[in-house]
Amino acid sequence: MPDPSLAQKTLRIMRVLHAALLLAAVLYVLLPLLVIKGAMHPPDAVIPLAFGMSALPALGVALFYRRRFVQPASEALCANPDDAAAAGRWRQGVLISLVCCESVVLFGLALRFIGGSWNLCAIFYVVGIFLMLAWVPRLELPPT
After folding, report:
1. What is the DSSP letter of 69?
2. What is the pLDDT of residue 5?
3. Distance between CA atoms of residues 138 and 8, nearest Å
4. Residue 140 in domain
5. Of 8, 26, 66, 131, which has the fewest beta carbons less than 10 angstroms from its beta carbon?
């Protein structure tokens, strides 16, 4: 069996990290069910708006890294699977974009803990988890 290329090793590592971050995001949805007992006082109307406005830059950073790092590095790795610089840029872009998606889920968790409704918090949960599922780490590598 031939040794896997650097790109294949990097892809495997990033898929494990992706699975861990996705599992954490799902657990963040379940955590308030286990911790919060009884009714909570809803926050002022400006708090959810502030959380939403704070989550938008995180999504912008995620999109920036996907376009600026992941796509070009992915193309470079398809041409040369052992390009260490491209593998590093790809790994950096994927990880930062996934962490930004995770932060959106964490905004929903924080909002839930300060009394936000499930319907409101679900917006943050769904957006973060949807983008994490849409951005599964993948590379189209030539066969070894």
Report:
1. I
2. 84
3. 10
4. no
5. 26
